[in-house]
Hints:
By secondary structure, the chain is of the alpha+beta class. The chain is built from 3 helices and 5 strands; from the N terminus they run H-E-H-E-E-E-H-E. It has helices at 20-40, 55-67, 116-125; strands spanning 46-52, 72-86, 98-101, 106-109, 131-145. A 3-stranded antiparallel beta sheet has the order 1-5-2, with helices on one face. A two-stranded antiparallel ribbon has the order 3-4. The protein starts with 19 loop residues before the first helix and ends with a strand.
Amino acid sequence: TQARATQSDKPDLVNGKGSDKEKLRALERSIARDAAEEERGTGKEEVVLKATNRAIEKALELGLFFQGQEDLVVRLRTGTVGAVDDIVEKEVRVGKPRRKDNKKGKEEKRGGGKGDEEVKQEAEGQELPETQIRKVSVLEVAITLN
């Protein structure tokens, strides 16, 4: 039988005895021991490909390709992740350019019909956040040797 590392085998970094360097060395030994035990265990490594947005289709194609291989097992997992967007404030242009209507010879304003004063008021009255978090769909393709 294989002895598994328990919580008591882990070095106590907060209340343990010794200097910080000794604690770090004990932590490194513990990590190396755990990695060696894991390597001796199942011997199966999993490669995970994560894709969002337009890359999901390509990830599915790769998963389908590897699923056709006899010695590989492919698992698909779906979920959502939070994507952080930085918001950069642009200068508001007041006074939209005019264009001539060739058929009638008249000038028209471009845009949705808001006047210059309305655009100014909206720009001054809004306080924009620095960042924004949005939810994005994610696909994980996990590939393991059989």
